[in-house]
Amino acid sequence: MNLIKKIMQLTRPYWPRVFAGIILSLFVSGITAAIAWVVKPALDEVLVNQRYEYMVYVPAGIVILFSAKGIFSFGYKYCMNSAGLKLMRDTRDRLYSHMLYLPAGYFQKESSGVVISKSISDVQMLDYLLSEVLKIFIMEIPTVIFLLGVALYRQWEMTLTMLLLVPLIALSTQAFGKRVKKKRSAAQQKIAVVTQKIGEAVQSIRMIKIFTQEDAMIHRFAAQNRQFYIEMLRVIRLREFTKLAIDMVTGIGVAGAVWYGASLVEKGIVTPGDLASIIVALYMIFAPIKKLGSAHNLLQESRASIERIDSLLDSKHEEQGERTIAGFTKSINFRNVSFAYPGSTNPVLKDINIEIQRGEVIAIVGQSGAGKSTLVDLIPRFNRITGGSLTIDGININELTLPGLRQLIGMVSQDVILFDDTIRENIAFGRRQASEEDIIEASKLAHADEFIRELPDGYNTEIGERGLKLSGGQRQRIAIARAILKNPSILIFDEATSALDSVSESIVQLAIQQLTEGRTTIVIAHRLSTILHSDRIFVMDEGRIIDAGTHNELKDRCTVYKQLYKTFSQTDSEPAG
Q1: Same domain, 37 and 120
Q2: Which of 97, 206, 481, 555 is deepest in the core (most CB within 10 A)?
Q3: pLDDT tens digits, residue range 270-287?
């Protein structure tokens, strides 16, 4: 019953088309029954009574009936298929918009392959739900009823005898349907893994090639793909075995009808036309019953997909505050802040106490895994703190609206995210209505305008997925131009130059200096050149702030910083590769 309610809820916006399909399907069902009905007069009058003058009307009647059936069937299938496509389109829109408002932490525990699989493969099953499953039920149930009426009218005793086989069909279909749902759910999980592996390969193709791991990756993918193949094979086997069982029962039913009906003709109880009409009606009844059995299995497969889609749609959006903030004027305050990932009892940040004044440039340093990126991710509320308080201008960030909070912040990270679009669209990503002059000015400040103009299509150059048609330094400058155009009050640089060579880094550093003027800047760095001019440096170790001060203060008193300084110095002295 819950499944029926869910289907009604999903299909409610498309009921005008579905209702039109129902009306047209009734005409199709009626014509199907009419074909079985006219068998008796055609045989009895033309052949038995030898009134051959009527023979001319038989072909004409057949053409009219089949043509009318075809016309109504076309309209009915168009209505149902278009409703299915609209359902699929709208559900994908819902999933995409819902996904973008989920917390960033959701994607740390749920793989991209699972999310993509739910949005593609599972939504495809919803199309089948309307264009196949519901279509079959709407068409075939009235067809069975009309044909049953014909058969009962001709000879009800023989018809009821044959219908004793229907419960057997229903029971076998029910049994196989439950197993199909289970196997389909397993198959959907496997295709999610396959999707994830494909995405990983596309994003990591250079790494795979440099380590010559093509064969190993192919072997791993083939193993996962084979698992999906095996699960789908089980689904097909169960689905087709249901059809086989129905075919066998249908054969028994038709054979019984022929044997029993022939004895009635021999006794003169029914005419040959009656028998032929009953046989045609019963045979035509078992065909839709077979389709209904298949539709039941597809319904169970749809149930598995609906459950997976609901698991994504039921995930809660980021929690919104209600207060707005006009701008950042005073300070950012961490007070006894701690943080643990959802589902974990071990905090990765502990007792963080930092006050950052407006216009101040601070650096956060520490060994890999110390919690630096996790710390700065709290400011735009990619993660919510689990203890203490984090305020901006005295307002708890949990009370602020997310758009208002994030409008204050610009981020440039080592892993630059660019979209498969033009350079212009990537720079204007945060300000869609920015003028051409503003985009060019931001590019000049980011030292990007010169290389952009040298490209064949300039600002209209398509940069490929993740900007792979550009160099690392070019991608960074595009990201900085994007941040400049946004004009944020708070800037976060998360190891923005660590992957660049010395020449690219020097250009990007100039761009960063242009961007940081008059703004509060938080820098996470592994290079000495990016932190020496900070107003203060915070040293992190195992999720704690263990010291803070200027470079000169820390290099004399902080053991951890001394070791980091030695590492920074070695890195900066290495020649560009």
Answers
A1: yes
A2: 481
A3: 677 666 666 777 667 767
